[in-house]
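Recall from the previous lesson that a structure prediction takes nothing but the amino acid sequence as input. Here we apply that procedure to 6,7-dimethyl-8-ribityllumazine synthase from Bilophila wadsworthia. The sequence below is the only information supplied.
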Amino acid sequence: MNQIKTIDGHLNAADLKFAILATRFNDFIVDRLVGGAVDYLIRHGGSEENLTIVRVPGAFEMPLACKKLAASGKYDGIVAVGAVIRGGTPHFDFVAAEATKGLAHVSLESGVPVGFGLLTTDNIEQAIERAGTKAGNKGVEAASAVLETVRVLQQI
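The prediction returns the following tokens.
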């Protein structure tokens, strides 16, 4: 086993540039996700001058903005955060599915890693839990995933 080459993504954000793409809708939740992502990247060697926060109206607008950010060539990775909370109509299902597919498509087509921090919850309580209470902060998790992926891709 000692002869098997292993590629690991070292969690060091020094000299990397990230866009944090965040929705305005449900901003009382999303602001906590943004804060978690920013804090994580800075604690891991990143700097404020290498972070850009981009706000879009809602989750449905995320894929297009993400595509533009990826195509700009300015960012090593994109952290996408937002919150889609189920209501009484099927609107939730369409928005959550299309935003998820769109963000994944951008990452695959552009080669720019996208950290997925879009909450899709049944209620506000679940969203609050995932934005920094019982279930951790999904903005932190998305930032961690994108940082590790950037570092892995640099070695492949």
